[in-house]
Amino acid sequence: MAAERPVVFVVDDDPSMRDAVEDLVASVGLEPRVFATPQEFLGAKRADGPACLVLDVRLPGSSGLTFQEQLAKAGIHIPVIFITGHGDIPMSVRAIKAGAVEFLSKPFRDQELLDAIHAGIEQDRLQRREEEAVADMQRRFATLTEREREVMALVIQGHANKRIGGELGVAEATVKVHRGQLMRKMGARSLPELVRMGDILAPPKS
After folding, report:
1. Which of 31, 64, 102, 136 could disulfide-pair with 116, CB 3.0 to 4.6 Å?
2. What is the pTM of this model?
3. Which structural domains are found in the chain, ordered by start?
4. Using one digit for the tens of pLDDT, what is the confidence trace for 110-159?
């Protein structure tokens, strides 16, 4: 099965700009999907594959910066590239601080936009890989028995097998068996790797 082509969403109320970006994106083998308003974008189906969003800063009735914030609140994590004919430094700083990949002032060179698009798609690709890795880790953790989870918690705190046995009221040899089992189930090849997994799986402290 062939991999899906990365998608470049474009939200701009200027038809000529939409057409220009659409042609540019298609010319390098990416799939463009264009919209005149943020509402059109939100109402459209988004394929589950690498993507980025080219977004005009000034939109009717709203602003691209406000829409960027709305996307984050809605849990839609997609790299954003801003384009504008009326940009200023405070605006660009706000956009970049909120996670934008790039902030391009019109007129910009085609290659500048393409470079930003490729960077956005690669960022999205890496983010998706990380999310898949965490989901796989959570699936592995779910296969551990309650005792294996107790042993894992103490192992990643740095306790030796003998002390873990004392705390759990089991023989040191039993701890070794549980430890070997949980390492295998988690796919951890070393103690530092297991510790990193524990850090990732730990719920954030409030």
Report:
1. 102
2. 0.77
3. 7-130 (3.40.50.2300), 143-201 (1.10.10.10)
4. 999 999 999 999 999 999 999 999 999 999 999 999 999 999 999 999 99
